[in-house]
């Protein structure tokens, strides 16, 4: 089995860091997105060298015929797509109303709930929990399973399928969000005889490389403060509060954890937030 990793949504907020970590670990990396373009990063050139090591390909996750050839010989697939809200048009409206990127109000509008940029699904009429969070993962998993079965299965070295799920639902977020994630998980775990399913359950995501003025960083600090306050004042003894105040996790931690699980031939199953935080 070759060390070829396919990352669907590889130029998104989390996907790009998964690609970067995989390159650093010596894997052959192919990013699949609708645009097929690499991400535009503002970091120094030396920190962007990994981008040249990734093969950036265009495909539609809901149409296996557009990417089936890439599945052949793959040692792993990562599904890094998802939406927190089914209608994210309000974000664009708020940003337009708040003016240019230099205006103070622009920055707070930019943090509004989102899993990140998902190039495969922009302007897609199927921008729903059912299609993006669930059906796209199931479609991809079935296509990968069929490819593996045609090539033959080595029970000692099964390929991996990694799904970016979620720790739990969020206040004021429709139940359909977490329900779609859990339903996708159930389907993926049924394929454990063909590939090793790896289910990641991160919480709120932030980027360690962003500066202190980044809004996601502000939210991260707020969540950490609330968690410390919960433990210090309440001892973390109230499950109802523990279920609401959950720690944030960086996309670098998630990426490191993903690659560690992928390269562990004995691991399969769910990776909770507490384990991801240790990466």
UniProtKB/TrEMBL annotation:
One of its GO terms (molecular function) is protein-containing complex binding. Transmembrane segments: none annotated. SUPFAM superfamilies: NAD(P)-binding Rossmann-fold domains. InterPro entries: ComplexI_NDUFA9_subunit, Epimerase_deHydtase, NAD(P)-bd_dom_sf. GO terms for cellular component: mitochondrion. Residues 6-80 form the NAD-dependent epimerase/dehydratase domain. This is NAD-dependent epimerase/dehydratase domain-containing protein. It comes from Zygosaccharomyces mellis.
